[in-house]
C-alpha cells in the first residue's frame, strides 16, 4: 500500500521509486502484483505519467483511510 500511495501522489513510478529509495523496477513489480491481486488496473498508463482508474480511486480512498 505504501508503494501504491507513493505512485498515486507522484503520478509516476520513477518518481515514487526515487522518494522511496528503491528501484523503479521494484515499484513497478509491486504495482503489477497488486493489480493482479485486485483483478483490475489501478492506474491508466499515459505518456505524461499515470492516472488513477475508477477502481484506483476507490482503492486510493481505502489506502488513505488506512494510512
Automatic annotation (TrEMBL):
InterPro entries: LysR_HTH_N, WH-like_DNA-bd_sf, WH_DNA-bd_sf. SUPFAM superfamilies: Winged helix' DNA-binding domain (SSF46785). Keywords: Transcription, Transcription regulation. Residues 1-53 form the HTH lysR-type domain. It holds the Pfam family HTH_1. One of its GO terms (molecular function) is transcription cis-regulatory region binding. The keyword Protein biosynthesis does not apply. Belongs to the LysR transcriptional regulatory family. This is Transcriptional regulator, LysR family.
Amino acid at each position: 500500500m505504501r508503494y501504491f500511495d507513493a505512485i498515486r501522489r507522484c503520478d509516476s513510478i520513477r518518481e515514487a521509486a526515487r522518494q522511496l529509495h528503491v528501484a523503479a523496477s521494484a515499484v513497478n513489480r509491486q504495482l503489477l502484483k497488486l493489480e493482479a491481486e485486485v483483478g483490475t488496473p489501478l492506474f491508466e498508463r499515459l505518456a505524461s505519467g499515470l492516472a488513477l482508474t475508477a477502481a484506483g480511486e476507490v482503492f486510493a480512498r481505502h489506502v488513505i483511510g488506512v494510512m
